[in-house]
Amino acid sequence: MKENTRPYLHLYARIQFTFKDHKTAPYSVHTHRLSIDCFQFVVHGVKIPVDFNAYDISIIDQKANGPIKTLTFEYESGRGLFFSDSYTSEVYDEIWRENGLSPEQVTAEFLSHADSLEEILFTFSSPNIESYDILDFQVLNLNLYDQNNKFELPGTVLNKITSKTIQ
């Protein structure tokens, strides 16, 4: 078995999602309906998509004001339902190589120097997805960790997000 040479990389984010619900059914969102498949950082002008093999999403707050619903949740890489893995997925290795980076260079410290968090690929699956209008999606905070250090992305970086792809 090949030894993993990727650096330990752990990502924690608190995210708020607001939508208009056109259904008349009682409001209830379950974590199995939520997934995040990519965080795209821009570091020194280079786009660096990052995905994780294992992660957990926990709903920490749900509010409803008529048809307007607000959901706050935590995303934490490394902790999966069936296994844990605190390393990045191999899915973007080719893109990294095209940008002159090896997987070993994509570390928590490196990503903490991001100019912006450009895109998040967010999936909110529902049997009646057409009954929702997405109103807002905000990253409230995002921390990166290696085995010894915590790196917090400042609000100025998080506020520069230009694309929240919601499927």
Commentary on this structure:
It contains 3 helices and 9 strands; from the N terminus they run βββββααβββαβ. By secondary structure, it is mainly β. The chain has one domain (10-166). It has a 5-stranded antiparallel beta sheet with strand order 4-5-1-7-8. A 4-stranded mixed beta sheet has the order 3-2-6-9. The longest helix has 6 residues, at 93-98. It is globular. The mean pLDDT is 82.
Helix residue percentage: under 10%
Low-confidence runs of at least 5 consecutive residues: none
Count of helical stretches: 3
Q: Report the strand count.
A: 9
- Please compute the radius of gyration using only Cα atoms: 17 Å
Structural class: mainly beta
The biggest beta sheet reads:
5 strands, antiparallel
Q: Supply the number of structural domains.
A: 1
Estimated share of beta-strand residues: over 45%
Question: H/E order of the elements?
Answer: EEEEEHHEEEHE
- The average pLDDT value, as a whole number, equals 82
Kindly report the spatial arrangement of strands forming the biggest sheet: 4-5-1-7-8
How is this fold's topology laid out?
Elements: E1 10-21, E2 34-43, E3 46-50, E4 55-65, E5 68-77, H1 93-98, H2 108-111, E6 116-124, E7 132-145, E8 150-152, H3 155-158, E9 163-166
Parallel strand pairs: 6-9
Antiparallel strand pairs: 1-5, 1-7, 2-3, 2-6, 4-5, 7-8
